[in-house]
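Reagents: none. Just compute today. Global transactivator.
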Amino acid sequence: MILDVVYQHIDLYSDHSFLIVDESVYFLDILAIAFKKAYEPAPYTEYNGRLSAMERHLVVKKASETKPPQIMLASRGTVGNDIDPQCFNVLIQCGPWWKVSWEVQTLGRLYRPGGTKPVFVYEVRAEDCDVEDHKINVRNNKNRQNSTLQEETIRPDEIMDTDIVQRSMS
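Predicted 3D structure written out:
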């Protein structure tokens, strides 16, 4: 399915680049094999915690110099580090994550001022999966509780003039 989304999107927009993110590097390993073995193999780069700091720097440099389309398989933990958001305008988020703030941060990496291309976001979830449903329920309950606590602890004189991004998750 993920490969289908990538290939169909490239057929429509050949100048777009993909950031595919998951919490599990093992799932990203499976995707890497799928991209290698596909009927039309797609070049990709990997950006995860297995790379040394120098390797991550070189991957980011290569991504900023490479012309679209390009595909980067990134683990959730490394997405906030050094990636130039101007390189990518298509996010494929694999599965729900334990924290809503992680999802918002990842989206924020692509929605940057000065972006010249539209941003596309795809979220891939398993149908009728009790594990993912449980994860979403626990995450949403914790997010509601944390939001309520945060609202109760903010004094009126502490409110800033900036908008806080809030995303409702269903």
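Residues 162-170 have pLDDT under 50 and may be disordered.
Action item: order primers for follow-up constructs.
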